[in-house]
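User: My collaborator sent over this chain with a note saying "see what the structure looks like." That's all I know about it. Can you take a look?
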Amino acid sequence: MTDAQETAADSSLRTTGGAPPDDGGSSVTGAPAGAPNPEPTPLLEPREGIPPVIADEESLARVIAAFAAGSGPVAVDAERASGYRYGQRAYLVQLRRQGAGTALIDPVACPDLSGLGEALSGTEWVLHAATQDLPCLREIGMVPTQLFDTELAGRLAGFPRVGLGAMVESVLGFVLEKGHSAVDWSTRPLPEPWLRYAALDVELLVDLRDALEKELDRQGKLEWARQEFDAIASAPPAEPRKDPWRRTSGMHKVRRRRQLGVVRELWETRDRIAQRRDVSPGKVLSDAAIVEAALALPANVPALAALNGFGHRMGRRQLEQWQAAVDRAKALSESQLPQPGQPVTGPPPPRAWADKDPAAAARLSAARAGVSALAERLNMPQENLITPDTVRRVCWEPPTVVDAESVGAALAGYGARPWQVEQVTPLLVAALSA
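Assistant: Without extra context I'll predict from the sequence alone. Here is the result:
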């Protein structure tokens, strides 16, 4: 009996509806063709109750042993404190595996989980939106060798809504309570309702994985999904962003180099303060305030205090540190000021193609139409069929000889998986040859 079936059998865990649909139908929900889906069942409690939070090495050792002795895939999730703390570190790690139950681990008290990661080496990890959680899991020593991403599986299978709650409801027939997704997970001790929410996030993740695997297989997309999962698992850590200050919201308003220098100086000052205080940069100074100061170039503290975002709640000392940053930028020589825009390594923006290279613009238009039609036929988002950047690069600089072999090699060179090369190459050959 699966977790979902056992949970459904426990009437104390639901208030309405019945068990998840059986597996006798024509889709992942199992409902016979033309039959209405049963009323979804609210999932109120983890099946074994809320487990204690693991916050010491002795308890962690027991969890590692239990999960090493478990069987089948392991559901993994992590909670961060985005919007509250600096960076994207994990503040709670949740796991569930057959034979081991559910574990909630405090990575602040137990910052090195490499022993757990090693115990699960070779085991398939089931995550929802894996690329969001893998960086913070890697920081604490947890790196999967193989994984199954239920969000990506939902995209490939053509589900219109792929959030965890929507997927669990549409596939398994349960309603997850999602009220605590954006709370401050750095809070200690964590309130019981938050822990309940966290435990329920992994309660049915392996069941969701199993149902989606069947659906992908039914659609002939299972091998495609496996290639995508392997690509995620084998991808190296992302390189640090170059000039991250350029991503300040509202930057499109800032055009003069001196103003750009103010944005950079304020952003870097804010980042140092936020890192030192371990708070979200937006809680130190908003992006809107940075842009406002850059546009105004205030001459002194009173002028700065009059700007939006530097209001009456900001103390004199704080205002002085921001004005000092503005003054530093104003004192830079022309050669020290940042250049407008960022160095472009790829093709120019598509809107400029018609003027720069009309033939390339025609190729891109034909390629986009072909990708759109194929994605619709395969019932998946276009960006999962092939990334728009890859299409642009191939259309801007096509192979000297356009044929299936050269176009396929170009796609592979830009990171396309074999299934994507197979699907997209014919339409790109046609677009590049037109």
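A starting point for your reply to your collaborator: Strands lie at 41-43, 53-54, 71-80, 90-98, 101-105, 124-127, 146-149, 174-176.
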